[in-house]
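Figure S4 source data
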Amino acid sequence: MALMAPWVALVLVQATVYSSVRQAGQQFAAICAGALLASAAQAIMDDNTGALVLSLPVLMLVANWSRFGGQGIYAATTAVFVLASGTAVSAAAVGHRVGQAALGAVIGVAVNALVLPPIHLRDVRENLAALAREAGDLLHSVAADLRETQWDAQSAAGWTSDAARLERRLEALYSARSWSRESLRLTSGRLRRLHRAPTVVPPEDEDRRWSRVTGNLGALTRTLAVAADEHRTPAPPEGPVLDLYARLLRLIGDACHTEAGRWAGERPGADPATATEETMEELHRRLQEGLREHAGQGAARTAVLGTLLLQAENLWAEIVPEPRESAEQ
């Protein structure tokens, strides 16, 4: 059964060091159970075919035992290996099989932990950059359609679909964060330096911040979808105030793209933060004046414009840094 050790080593080289250690125990237990049950069935039946018939039903039940996690299937696989080897059953043979499995488990975990463990750090940055970039693309798309004043329910449906895509990107970010956290658990700092991946993971506060941004964008697109529906009471704003709102969204989208470039490691150009802040303050002031003007044109348009302005302010607060924070960075 010299094949047992390399086979166990190969299946134990998992995606992260932590997974290897955790799964090594489950897999080793399943392999030992398979070897022992196959040897016992071989001793009872004195025939490999009969031993296979006797042991496999039991091993399939063992494979579904929750204590083995996803490694229970290796119990049945090991039984097939043991019976196919044709080795006569004895205490020495059983001990040899278990020893081979233990040796393979040690080698598999050692390769992952001490030679070159995979570290998933870049995925977090890539997903953050992609999330910021796609958020900026959505804001630019909404702004362009609003400025054309030709947007309708079909346009709003497209925005809603893009917002749903952002939710999926956010889930990918959470998954990448989980992988990066797990891959660093048992990996030494010396081995981390062997990788070209960045050794600093973006803080988890960024995940929460972009989660709020994604939620605000979803709310904004839903509001626009309701306003575009001819069968609903809320009416979309019209005239110069709509153009002002589109300009505000475009500036926030520009800030998203700047954030995406930062996470992607791109060199920042000239810092337009002060000019952007002043422009957005001016747009906000004029939108507030427009809101007061709309108040005299009916409650429906005023409610929609007020809701849209509040959602833009929420996005602004999350995406555009305060001047003091920018100076500190």
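Figure S5 source data
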Amino acid sequence: MNQSASERRLKAELDALAKPVKGIVGYSLYHTRQNHRIALNGDEIFPTASTIKVAVMGKAFEEVTSGRLGYLDKLAIAPDDRRGGAGFLQFYKDDAKPEIKELIHLMITVSDNTATIMLAKKLGVVAINEWLSRLNLKDTRLLSAIPPEEKELLALREKWGMGMATPNEMVALLDAIRTNKAGTVAACEAMIRILTHQYFDDLIAAQSPPWVPVASKSGSIDASRSDIAIVFSPSGPYILAVYAKEIEDRRWSKENESQKMIKAIARKVYQHYHPREKWSPPPGHDAL
């Protein structure tokens, strides 16, 4: 694919920001109005961490809009559903029965791990992955709540953890939501609204002005950091996915070099398409 001088310049700048990271970095960028596509290791598989939760949400909305599942149906929290880490459901009372709507919102907005397991079990990991296949996403897979008979998925989980994907396919997944190809118009619009309600909004979302809507989902495990987003910018919507794996810097702090790299790439992209924009992250923003 022939790239314009502007695309080549931006790719060189983004590659330079990725290069210092001690690990493997991949990113994919698609500017929908200008039809720019830029990638580094765009077809390489990365561990998704929590970014795969977008796929669980997509399948959940398919079930809801088809009438096979009620948005306000309630699910009991089984003892083996509770997961540590992000989220509030792990602290709910034993007799709590959250609604499907609540599970979806908590899974995405605060990355609730218990909600993810409950939805994955209800929907079925095989069914979720089949939904991804129908979107022509061949290397993106959920690898949680796997039945014991699914030996191939279990083997993949040993390598990738919660999920696996390529940067290019994650951009395609978000674009399918943006263009109403991942479900009904109502479902896709609901998914975008949920993705804009992020608690963890300090990576891609923090690198554009606060009046610019950003629909995003981040993911973190010890050896990997990632963020994916649709930025509804004045120049037109663009989709950015940035992943890092096998990283040496595994600090759980804002000083982590992969997190700083994701922010730098996101900032550079926004600046490139809005060269006259005077806004920049204000002093002290990294402390918030």
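The domain at 5-276 is CATH 3.40.710.10 (Beta-lactamase). The two ends are 41 Å apart (CA to CA).
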